[in-house]
Amino acid sequence: MKQAASDFLASKRIAVTGVSRNPEGHGSNAVYQRLRARGYQVFAINPNADEVEGDRCYHDLRSVPRGVDAVLIGTRPETAEATMRECASLGIRYVWMHRAVGAGSVSDAATEYGRQHGIRVIDGGCPLMFDPAADVGHKAMRFMLTRTGKVPRQV
């Protein structure tokens, strides 16, 4: 898991799906903000918004100029498979489905599809739980959530 997280976070152009126009309480917005603050080129993806967090928002992954290296899926699990299919068609090699509590964005069908198409899929947890994006609070969450299975031990 640590190596998969390291490989994902080695990507410098990361799309974050599910970034909301109303950032309060949205995990995707927290990830988007932190990655941007850490110097990543991040791209907000929301089919219903043209701007979020003061930045341009793209309606889908295909719309991002020059593409991305990795994608964080932060939407409902029901939409994860469609996003995974788009990632496969675009040749994106790293996808992380966000989950802390509850189902998060994890979809078994999306995980299976991605892995069958050569994508390194992280099916749970959050990039903010791992360096260089981590903070103490997220590291503590990783410790607890790994024990409950919300953060996978292996990818």
TrEMBL record:
It comes from Micromonospora globispora. Residues 8-102 form the CoA-binding domain. This is CoA-binding protein. SMART domains: CoA_binding. It comes from the Bacteria. The lineage of its organism: Bacteria, Bacillati, Actinomycetota, Actinomycetes, Micromonosporales. Pfam families: CoA_binding_2. InterPro entries: CoA-bd, NAD(P)-bd_dom_sf.
